[in-house]
Amino acid sequence: MSTLSRFHGGIHPPEFKTLSNGTPIATPPLPAQLVVPLSQHLGNPAKACVSIGERVLAGQRIGEADGRISAAVHAPTSGLIRAIGPHAVAHPSGLLQDCIVIDSDGLDHWSAPSPLPNWQEAGNDEIRTFLRDMGVVGQGGAVFPTSLKLGVTTLEQLIVNGAECEPFISCDDRLMRERAAEIVDGIRIAAHLMRPRAVLIGIEDNKPEAIAAMRAACAGSGFEVLAIPTLYPSGGAKQLIRLLTGKKVPHGVRATDMGVQCFNVGTLYSLKRAIVDGEPVVSRILTLTGNLARPGNIEARIGTPFAHLLNWAGMQADNEGVIMGGPMMGFDLPGLNAGVSKASNCLIAKSRALFPPRPQAMPCIRCGECAKVCPAELQPMDLYWFAKAKDMGRAQEADLFDCIECGACSYVCPSQLPLVDFYKFAKDEIWAAEREKKAADRARMRHDFRQLRLERDKAEKAQRLAARATPAPERSAAPDPDKAAAIRAAMARAAEKKAEGGSTPAKTPLSDDAKRAAIEAAMARAAANKAARESAVSHAAAPGDEAKRAAIEAAMARAAARKAAQSAEADAKGSSDSAAGVSPAPAPKPVMDADKRAAIEAAMARAAAKKAAQSAAADAKGSSDSAAGASSAPAPKPVMDAEKRAAIEAAMARAAAKKAERDAAQKGDH
Amino acid sequence: MHAPYIARPTTVSVIMLKVLLALLPAIAVSVWFYGIALLVQLTLASATALLAEAAMLRLRGLAIAPFLKDGSALLTAWLLALSMPALGAWWLIVVATLFAIVVGKQLYGGLGNNPFNPAMVGFAVAMVSFPAQMAHWGMPHGPLDSSAQLAWIFSRELPAGLSLDAISMATPLDYLKTQLLLGGSDIASLKEAPMFGHIAGVGSEWVALAYLAGGLFLLQQRVIRYQAPLAMLAGLTTLAVPLWLWQPAHYVDPLFHLVAGATLLAAFFIVTDPVSGPTSARGQLIFGFGVGLLIYVIRVFGGYPDAAAFAVLLMNIAVPLIDQLTRPPAFGKRKRAKKADQHA
To answer: Which of A201, A405, A585, A640 is 20 to 30 Å from B66 by CA-CA measure?
Structure first.
């Protein structure tokens, strides 16, 4: 039996769970029209793969995963694709996002299920790709693609999050009570992939029925169900990990680096449905509660408009808006036209009685209650002070980005200050400043590279001219590669310096950078492929040596590209941990160095690839020229030089990369 | 409206009201021993504080009602009235309160922004500016009836046949200090004087215990935390015990120090002021301990008979430093990021 460790702080607000957790999960009637957002997950939105007017079946893929950090979306029911384009989604901003609108035909015809029956034998990659294509994402709030979280193959503890600590929400509670066996099957699959030494399931002790059901389902499995004290935010990934393992995963450190990974029960349920039953994620359990005639939990098809569900549950006349999510971390829905997404766990109809307006805010009296309840062990009153004064540097020094925006501080504040709003504001300001700075840096870097390239091309042109002018190439060829090497060295130095100089403690939002790095890596890969293709062409026409050189350079470029992709992946993984639990706080990334490194490497790879392509072309032409001119032997010396040069460059690139890595690691340590 | 949509109903006003409530036992005991003079002082102080606060808020262009309702000005006024001699002239408490509210609080930015405890600022100003006025304390069950007390406070007129000396006395702390300085007779014989009760002064020891009761109520209500009071009493004891053991004839016993003067008032109602004190638990321990040490040092070796106000003000100065040095690390982190950056 494992023992529990306490986490600092926490609050115990009124639960309001009994409003909705007394009745079984219901199935409301299908709506006439469904609005399926293409972006229901962290990362790239899915790419629509159906066209307007097309008939689709339930479970049919209508959006394909776009890249690694993405997930597919599927038709929740059968019908006709009415529209593909911007539509209101469940987002506090009220901004439109691309959605697929489906007119239901009312028949609910399903496509043939496509399970993965032999998952025990299937490779890790196969299962992960399968899950991505089945649209399985984290259902705890952050909707991080589950495929990315299963990449770790050794784990000390696999944490299953059934805490459900926010008031009002009871969807996980009902799911565990009614479908515990399927959740446990999901755990088995995750455990098969990740080989944890222990599987710990944490459920708050205000859900005794769920605990009993999960214990019964886990009998004989070796999985341990632990009742944890009801204390918000015990369902935060870091807090739950602390509770169940005693480990404190600091901000900026991946849970997997400490041997832990955390999954929500809903995620594991959908994982099981996908793999065993071949059913993609087309529905989820959703709590309808608050000021409703018939509150309860439902299994809602993705894309069902909120208005449809709320009307079905009996919207009251005195309704004052609807909260999406819980009362601690949720947000006001700007409208009810949007459809259910994989992140939608709860809709709370507000009334003045349930949510009386807060008294007027007063100045902070430094009572320290906020610090007492802060689960991130921050000093919220200091952060508030810094944010209010727009002293972003000191706010970051005071670990602003460790804040998980759980709202406990604001809940207890006797001065009624909207503290979390201040922290969100400060984070946004810092991100905006960082984006500006990065854009400027990128422009400068592009300029520097252009200058270098022009210089180098000029030098090479001179070299070629000189080589053609003097029939004896031994002497003249030698210094030029040296020069090129020097240029490369200077470039590497400049890049390093930039990486060091630019290593402000600023943190940046993940999605942008990871995306950018991924794009750059992809571009570099494309360039490398092109170079390879071209060298292959030149291979036919020219002697093998140039082709070889081009191939080497292309390979280098590919390697660099791969590295860039890896680091982008690493960053993405880093964020997945915080994404696991209730904290939908857009996990800010700790190591901007890694991004910069990835960007620099990608850029270098691009340059190298381009150069390889150019020189391959030039050499091919040169050799055909020399063949036409019937000049004397194509002198082995320059080739040697070229090879040497390639080797030097490769070594230098390696050294630079290693250095950058070291720097990043150092930063990461602190 | 943004998340969180729910909040604990405790407001600043509720906190302040509970503190005011916790002062009621001490006020009652005081009035029992010393007469209605204290109620007059409380009224004067409250009226002055509210008027001064309103005037300052108006000058600063802020809403008046919510800040008057928060109860903080009233609390400052009460603490000040309880700290000052109940038989002091009316203008003394008015001047002290004005200074506390206008300079000590509002000029620094009002509620939440004052680095010094406003009541202690007012007290210190009165103590330094009018030492003679501040030396005359009422006697328990003294010769003045209610109307005579009123007359004395407002017009400095005494009933026929009574002198100032006949209606007032020095505090036990003051008496001990003066006598020890004068003659060096030992504590034991000095404590034979009629002003001494079981532990400290005859009436004042009961008032002090009423403060203790109020403090325990605040602890139970979680309005205050135990760290600062406990550390303050510990700091005082830390110096009092060894010196008393060494020369009991010259250094009065620790229990006397703990009950006499403003010790318990300061412990539960002054060093617990969140605005002018440190925020972290460790910081509050350091702060309280410092106040305790300073109270003893000033009482025994300094120029003033009691020292709570000066000790608190001196430690208020140190609060920003204490806060900086005691900031606990964030979840999972060992040391502050700032230090880490310096290493990198």
So the answer is: A405
- What is the pLDDT, as a whole number, of residue A469? 82
Element (H, E) at B239: helix B227-246
| pLDDT tens by residue, B53-87 | 999 999 999 999 999 999 999 999 999 999 999 99
Fold of A33-284: Rossmann fold (3.40.50)
Out of B5, B274, B327, the one facing A355 most closely (by C-beta) is B5
Residue A265, both tokens? 């029960």
CA distance A64 to A133: 7
Residue B111 CA to chain centroid, in angstroms?
18
Integer Cα distance of B235 and B314 in angstroms: 15
For residue B4, whether the previous peptide bond is cis, meaning omega lies within 30 degrees of 0, is: yes
Residue A22: count other Cβ atoms within 10 Å of its Cβ: 12
d(CA A36, CA A46): 11
**Beta pairing class for B168-169 and B137-138:** antiparallel
Residues of chain B below pLDDT 70: 1, 184, 335-344
What is the rounded radius of gyration, in angstroms, for the C-alpha atoms of chain B?
A: 21
Domains A33-284 and A285-349 in one fold: no
Q: How far apart are CA B99 and CA B318, in angstroms?
A: 22
| pLDDT per position as a tens digit, B136-146 | 888 888 888 88
The Cα A246–Cα A452 span in angstroms is: 53
**Residue listed under structure tokens 């070629």:** A464
Helices (H) and strands (E) in chain A, counts: 18, 18
Please, how many CA atoms are within 13 Å of residue A669, restricted to the half-sphere of its CB?
A: 11
Q: Write the DSSP symbol of residue A26.
A: B
H or E element at residue A548: helix A544-579
Q: H-type helices in A324-401, by residue range? A: 369-373, 380-388, 392-397
- The helix or strand, by DSSP H or E, that contains position A104, with its residue range, turns out to be strand A96-104
For residue A121, the 8-state DSSP code is T
Q: Kindly list the residues of chain B whose beta carbon comes within 8 Å of any beta carbon in chain A.
A: 1-8, 10-12, 14-15, 66-67, 70, 72, 110-113, 225, 274-275, 277, 279-280, 327-333, 336-338, 340-341, 343-344
pLDDT tens-digit map of A333-387: 999 999 999 999 999 999 999 999 999 999 999 999 999 999 999 999 999 999 9
Give me the residue spans of the domains in chain A. 33-284, 285-349, 368-458, 470-669
Residues 361-390, chain A, touching B (beta carbon < 8 A): 362-368, 371, 375-379, 381-382
What local confidence, expressed as pLDDT, does residue A589 receive? Answer: 43
- Measured between alpha carbons, how far is A198 from A222 in angstroms, rounded to an integer? 8
Distance from CA of A625 to the nearest CA of B (A): 55
How high is the ipTM of this complex? Answer: 0.90
Interatomic CA distance for residues B259 and A666, integer angstroms: 56
Q: How far apart are the C-alpha atoms of B296 and B177, rounded to whole Å?
A: 12
Which of B279, B331, B343 lies at the smallest CB-CB distance from A670?
B343
Count of other CB atoms within 10 angstroms of residue A636? 10
Give the pairing of strands A155-162 and A47-48. unpaired
Place of tokens 């997404």: A341
Dist. CA B123–CA B97, nearest whole Å = 8
Where do the DSSP E strands lie in A447-496?
none
| Assigned CATH for A285-349 | 3.10.20.600
Q: Which of A19, A244, A274, A13 is nearest to A131 (CA)?
A: A274
Give the whole-angstrom CA distance, residue A423 versus residue A383: 7
> What is each CA distance from A416 to A359, A361, B226, in whole angstroms?
7, 5, 24
**Is residue B232 within 8 Å of residue B271, measured between CB atoms?**
yes
Give the distance from CA B89 to its chain's centroid.
20
CA distances from A66 to A43, A49, A136 (A): 9, 11, 14
